[in-house]
Q: What sequence folds into this?
């Protein structure tokens, strides 16, 4: 694992890589203390390192490039030729460019504000992933250059099982449906940004029958049809549906009472603002294995629903109730094994109740 610039000059790292012909795993990580793009690895450095890997490390199986400037089309092309045995490609907060140049900013002379553009030809980088015949895990979190057509190219990865395309808010229902049609039955884990999607695609999520983890952030347009489809995923153990503001209380009752979500051990319904005690009671009765439950800013839930959760979910260890303005804390005396309880912004929970809890 190579972190930041702490290990020496780029030339020294390139020389080291060139002598590691049997290397199977490598990570290039940005230190957490460096948050701005200006502090990331110089792109030339990353290109030299990628080229060194492509030339020397033909047995490489796992590559992580996190928090660096995006790879170019040529960088990824070199990898697809020299490191075709890659099984895991993690470009979390790095991503890849549709072409060989970085986006540039210039000042609009009329309004005096910066505008974004490109100083080169654009080529869809995702078409290259099909060359990694053993690729099973791909992380493109926050990769702004991935578009709908690009997602359809990723669907050509025959062995793909895990895909992270969260924080990408420009994908179409059509592209997601195409991906599900081609890869859905093999998928085991999917992280996706739902802001640009609707039940036109959510309604087909039930086709991903082997899915074990599903994370949908910004599920603003997730409706009853989409939630009902997700509830049919019988192998799900980890489910996040964040900001499902259009979902009605009855939608949760139907999904959890008549769905197939009894294997869930992790459930995050934060900012699903309309869920109330009836929905939470359905969760309690039909998801007995829950170990983690997050209900941030679910203000319609009261102590009645949470008392049922505490009673029915015997394995519950983590409970996040941040923003629970309707809670009084009457359910707290029944808790006996929680490791983490978040009651931030729960103003009506009395201090005396909390003191009794920790005694």
A:
């Amino acid at each position: 694992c190579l972190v930041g610039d702490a290990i020496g000059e780029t030339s020294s790292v390139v020389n080291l890589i060139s002598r590691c012909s049997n290397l199977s795993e490598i990570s290039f990580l940005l230190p957490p203390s460096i948050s701005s793009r200006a502090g990331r690895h110089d792109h030339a450095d990353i290109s030299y390192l990628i080229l060194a890997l492509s030339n020397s490390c033909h047995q490489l199986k796992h590559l992580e490039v996190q928090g660096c400037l995006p790879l170019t089309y040529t960088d990824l092309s070199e990898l697809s030729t020299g490191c075709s045995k890659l099984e895991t490609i993690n470009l979390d907060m790095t991503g890849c460019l549709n072409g060989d140049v970085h986006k540039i900013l210039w000042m609009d002379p009329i309004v005096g504000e910066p505008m974004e553009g490109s100083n080169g030809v654009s080529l869809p980088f995702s078409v290259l992933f099909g060359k990694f015949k053993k690729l099973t895990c791909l992380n493109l979190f926050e990769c702004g250059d991935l578009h709908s057509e690009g997602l359809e190219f990723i669907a050509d990865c025959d062995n793909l099982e895990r895909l992270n395309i969260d924080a990408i808010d420009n994908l179409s229902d059509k592209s997601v449906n195409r991906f599900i049609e081609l890869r859905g039955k093999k998928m085991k884990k999917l992280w996706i940004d739902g802001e640009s999607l609707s039940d036109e695609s959510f309604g087909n999520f039930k086709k991903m029958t082997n899915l074990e983890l599903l994370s949908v952030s910004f599920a603003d347009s997730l409706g009853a049809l989409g939630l009902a489809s997700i509830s049919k995923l019988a192998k799900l153990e980890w489910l996040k549906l964040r900001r499902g503001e259009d979902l009605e209380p009855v939608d949760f009752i139907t999904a959890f009472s008549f769905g197939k979500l009894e294997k869930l051990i992790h459930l995050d319904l934060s900012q699903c603002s309309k869920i109330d005690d009836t929905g939470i009671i359905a969760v309690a009765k039909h998801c007995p294995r829950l170990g983690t439950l997050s209900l941030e800013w679910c203000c319609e839930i009261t102590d009645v629903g949470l008392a049922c959760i505490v009673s029915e979910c015997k394995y519950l260890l983590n409970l996040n109730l941040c923003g629970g303005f309707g809670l009084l804390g009457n359910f707290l005396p029944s808790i006996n094994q929680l490791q983490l309880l978040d009651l931030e912004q729960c103003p009506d929970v009395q201090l005396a109740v909390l003191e009794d809890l920790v005694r």
